[in-house]
Amino acid sequence: MLFPDLTICNFNPIRRSYVQGQSILNDYISKHPNFTVDEFYMEAGFDCSEVFKYCSIGGRVFDCCANAEPIRTNFGKCFTLKLQSSDKEWMHRQTEPGASAGIQIILDAHLEEQFGTNKPNDTTQPLFSNGFENGFRYFVHQKDSIPYLVANGISISPDTVAYTAITTNRYVLLPRESWGNCSDEYPQEYAQSDFPYSMANCQSICKAKYFTDNCGCTPSLYNIAETFPECSPFETYICIDQHLRTQTNDSVYYAAPDCSQCKLDCLSTTYQTSNSYGRGLSNGALYWLNRKNSNWSIDHMKENFGIVNIFFSEMTFTEYSQVQATSLTEILSDIGGNMGMFLGMSVITITELSMYFSKLLWIIISKKRREYLYKKKTKEQEHDKKIEEVVTEISLFRSRKEGTGSMSRLKGLVAQHQVQPTSPSELNIAQLAWTEAQQNQSSEIPEIITDDCNPRKMNGGVNVSS
């Protein structure tokens, strides 16, 4: 696992020996005509070699100051240890979990450099700076990001051993074009910045621009890009009091800049820490360190030395990825499914409805279309009438044809049976019935040939005798 950046600050931001003998600010400014707050803190703070006494990774010793960069924070002059920037590959990462394979740093608080130590040669008054305790504050953070030691830092006092176990979380968010809200680029008004984008960097530049627009300068804490004129502490106080402070009745409000245009990073890494402490350096450790450097007296180490152990508790990280809850394909599928289930609609139905309403609108708008449809309907009615007449004629023809066929069937039935001799009266009745049938049916009337009431063969070969 790659080591993160580590920023360490001394709670005492100013060395007493640097300003001793300069009783007032005007005296100091007269000796330093180009006075700025940044320059003052960087010169009055402790040097790297005064703070870092011993550094190792997995037991291998390395030079802390060769990989540390001074940085000014709200704690004054601090140092950021950037192990990933080292030219030695073994310093970039931890190879196994546990404190024995992590980073160990021994720090010197130099409490003798505080104001008001009550020592015989110290005539200064105690100075209340950033905290109630002595020692250091450190913060584990992502590479090339701003350390927020006030909110997320870890404190350690002299004669204490701290163990900081790290767990890594990585966040992958969606940009705006993928329905997300993150960004990898500065807003247009901050595009001139050369700093890598992060939400913290963007907000710092936003606040620096806000102060510059209202007061003509910005507090040095927000001038991370060093592109804005910096305010002195007095100018910062006047700016806030005259331009940003508003009072309503008994309440005082300070106008804060709106930096909502600074979005979350699309790719970020955070380090969660779990801390434990041990009080008091062992005698064996004190004598071992004294043998390392005879200038480190045991009394001085008991009063000033603190040991920080930073390590990965496990060689894994957790990644949180933001994904679209529903893709475009799924949305269309859901719409189609709901319409089909609750409305009985399909793509064909939607197409038909679209065509129907478009044609209806065409009829309403176009007069030619209405005339055309009227003529078409008239022709269709005439055509239907002709078809109906033809069908009627065909039906009549078929009914006549079916009647002829029934007469033929009648003659066939008669041919199949022998007719018993009939009396003259019965024969007359049959002739009357035959005559009536002949009048109703004109085609294919069978002939009855008689000779002196002795019937001959009829059609079909039927003999009739009287």
Q: How far is the N terminus from the C terminus?
A: 132 Å
What is the CATH architecture term of the largest domain?
A: Sandwich
The number of strands is 17
Overall number of structural domains: 4
Shape, per Cα inertia axes: elongated
InterPro entries: ENaC
Family: Belongs to the amiloride-sensitive sodium channel (TC 1.A.6) family.
Keywords: Glycoprotein, Ion channel, Ion transport, Membrane, Sodium, Sodium channel, Sodium transport, Transmembrane, Transmembrane helix, Transport
GO cellular component, one term: plasma membrane
What does this structure look like?
With 466 residues, the chain is an alpha+beta fold. It is 37% helix and 21% strand. Strand 11 and strand 12 form a beta hairpin. The chain is built from 13 helices and 17 strands. It folds into 4 domains: 217 residues, Acid-sensing ion channels like fold; 81 residues; 37 residues, no CATH class; 70 residues, no CATH class. The strands form 5 sheets. It has a 6-stranded mixed beta sheet with strand order 3-2-6-15-9-14.
Indicate the topology.
Blueprint lengths: L4 E6 L5 H4 L5 H7 L5 H8 L3 H4 E6 L2 E2 L6 E6 L2 E6 L21 E6 L27 E6 L7 H4 L1 E3 L3 E13 L9 E2 L15 H17 L17 H12 E4 L2 E4 L9 E2 L1 E13 L3 H10 L5 H7 E17 L6 H15 L4 H19 L1 H49 L8 H17 L9 E2 L2 E2 L11
Parallel strand pairs: 9-15, 10-13
Antiparallel strand pairs: 1-5, 1-7, 2-3, 2-6, 4-5, 6-15, 7-8, 9-14, 11-12, 16-17
Subcellular location: Membrane
Keywords: Glycoprotein, Ion channel, Ion transport, Membrane, Sodium, Sodium channel, Sodium transport, Transmembrane, Transmembrane helix, Transport
Main location: membrane
